[in-house]
Amino acid sequence: MVTIDVPAFYRDWAARSGDVIDAAAGRGPDSLEDVRLAYRRFFQDCFPAPDGVTFTPVYADGVAAESAVPADAVPGRHLVYLHGGAYLVGDPPGYRGLTGEFARRLRARVLVPDYRLAPEAVFPAALDDAVRAYRWLLEQGAAPENVVFAGDSAGGAMAVSVLVAARDQGLPLPAASIAVSPWANLEHTGATMFTLDGVDPSVNRAGLRRAADVFLGSAPPNSPPASPVFADTRGLPPVLIQVGGHEVMLSDAVRLAAKLAEDAVAVRLDVAPGMGHVWHLLASHLPAADRAVADAVAFAEAHLPAA
After folding, report:
1. Which of 68, 140, 206, 283 is deepest in the core (most CB within 10 A)?
2. At residue 1, does pLDDT exceed 50?
3. Distance in angstroms (rounded) separating the CA atoms of residues 80 and 98
């Protein structure tokens, strides 16, 4: 049963995202610091942290991060979660509702890097921080076969791009990765960028283009680390892509799945009809969100050693 006003949530989220983009571009009436704080509080109010999960700040080789640990964590089991926010907004405290849900259901220690945001730190700062946090996790003794990556939106793209960067740096790769509503193509050329513009309840092509301009700095939008649809993904571990049927990002998620398949990566694409961007946030409020999180957890468990 739906226990939250889903259309109202998406309208509010869209408005707040627009405020962030305006402030990041220096065009809004409020400071970027203020709109980021308001964004965090909005997420915390909508999606409070679940009971039974402890959240602790950590520093991963200089990268600020947060660890979410359920009371019944499986020893040695880890999830690295990369939050969304168009590389402009978002942080671990604002994502405790979702990261705590993953921690609880997967019974894993969840590391959430508080990667640097644009415009203060443009591409590839976020990606560099995420790779650095993963390297730190391995240095702490985490076995790569006991690690799964996940992320949503910008973090969903990085859930693939970080693995490419880790491979290129000679790091052992994790067991699997989960890309939720990935912002996988910053050229925004997928068909649904046009056909679902105005249908997607929270994201539109114009806003994404403005956010990408702030994030990319002088880098081209087809740079493979920023847009993994253009990356050489050979040798990556299995990837699950989950995307909503009403998302402007749908076509580019399909394109990302095709690129992974062409590169002989085991990939599964799940399209949820009628769902909007990162509907997983609505777990415990919306049955489709509960199913999506459960599917993601089952995928992770299928690639991790038995508990």
Report:
1. 68
2. no
3. 13
List CB contacts of 27: < 8 A, sequence separation 6 or more.
none
Q: Return phi, psi of residue 180, to 5°.
A: -100, 125
With the C-alpha atoms ordered 20, 24, 29, 30, is the resulting torsion angle positive or negative?
A: positive
Query: Alpha helix (H) ranges present in 86-184?
Result: 96-106, 125-139, 154-168
* Residue 4: predicted pLDDT: 85
Helix (H) or strand (E) holding 148: strand 147-152
Largest distance between two CA atoms of the chain: 52
Q: Taking all residues of the chain, what is their mean pLDDT, rounded to a whole number?
A: 96
For the whole model, what pTM was predicted? 0.97
The pair of structure tokens assigned to 39 is 């964004």
How many Cβ atoms are within 10 Å of 52's Cβ, its own excluded?
12
Rounded Cα gap, residues 176 and 304, in angstroms: 8
Q: Phi and psi at residue 134, in whole multiples of 5°? A: -65, -45
What is the distance between the alpha carbons of residues 123 and 158, in angstroms, rounded to a whole number?
A: 12
d(CA 249, CA 153): 9
Mean pLDDT of 4-15: 94
Total residue count of the chain as it appears in this document: 307
Active site residues: 153, 247, 277
DSSP string, 60-77: ETTEEEEEEEETTPPTT-
Read off the pLDDT of residues 210-248 as tens digits, 9 standing for 90 and up. Answer: 999 999 999 999 999 999 999 999 999 999 999 999 999
**What is the side-by-side order of every strand in the sheet holding 239-244?**
53-60, 63-70, 109-113, 78-82, 147-152, 176-180, 239-244, 267-272
Q: Quick one: tokens of 100?
A: 């705590």
